[in-house]
Amino acid sequence: MQRFFAIGDIHGCLDKLVKLMGRIGINWAEDTVVFVGDYIDRGPDPKQVVDYVIELRETHERVVCLRGNHEAMFLNYLDRREEQIFLFNGGRDTLRSYGMDPDAEDRKEKIPPKHLEFFRTLLPFYETEKYLFVHAGVRPGIPIGLQDPHDLIWIRHEFFMSDHGLDKIVVFGHTPFRREPFAGEKMIGIDTGAVYGGTLTCLELPTMRFHHV
Q: Which H or E run includes 19?
């Protein structure tokens, strides 16, 4: 039986990520790991988290990496667009981990080429026959192929307080649920606030087992 391991928002919490990956018992020949985005910002080790995830993706075929809103903000910052939004949302911690000054002129030169490629090639969503993995959620009533990319990484209550209308279980991060994962109608939220003192959560499917660190 093929299993899927969906991992919630990491936000630079490398220690929790390493411990979690060591506990969940992945069979790399058959299982698929899906990261739902937000690898960076706010936590102590954003760059190191990206190093770790890139190494996983390079050494194992079944690693899927989705784009979060924080990766989108970082790319905008590197392109000198919407800079203050990135800095206001924990971006200074990411810059610190890359040894960058917020006002640096040579921004992209400070980012390893592998990291730039990683940020630029993150997927907007990943779907299987039964599941849809996405960072933030979907706009209810709209087929996945017609979704606004902005909604996929930013939407909140409009999604998880409604019937999304899709015929799949949607697994998402983005909105932190501090005490335990969110389980709604055909949707599961797995951001449990790792960077805010909560746990880093992995959802194992199809068994619906949660792993926490």
A: helix 14-23
Other beta carbons less than 10 A from residue 166's beta carbon: 17
Q: Which residues contact 106 (CB under 8 A, 6 or more apart)?
A: none
Distance CA 80, CA 83 (A): 6
91-130: b (≥16 Cβ within 10 Å) or e: bbbbbebbebeeeeeebeeebeeebeebbeebbebbeeee
Superfamily of 4-212 according to CATH: Metallo-dependent phosphatases (3.60.21.10)
- With left for phi above 0 and alpha for psi between -120 and 50, is residue 193 left, alpha or beta? left
Rounded Cα distance, 36 and 169, in Å: 14
Q: Give which of 47, 4, 8, 7 is closest to 26, Cα–Cα.
A: 4
What is the per-residue pLDDT across 139-163, written as a single tens digit (0 to 9) for each? 999 999 999 999 999 999 999 999 9
Structural domain boundaries of the chain? Answer: 4-212
pLDDT tens for 57-116 read 999 999 999 999 999 999 999 999 999 999 999 999 999 999 999 987 888 898 999 999
- Model-wide pTM > 0.85: yes
Instruction: Give the closest residue to 31 by CA, choosing from 67, 64, 70.
Output: 64
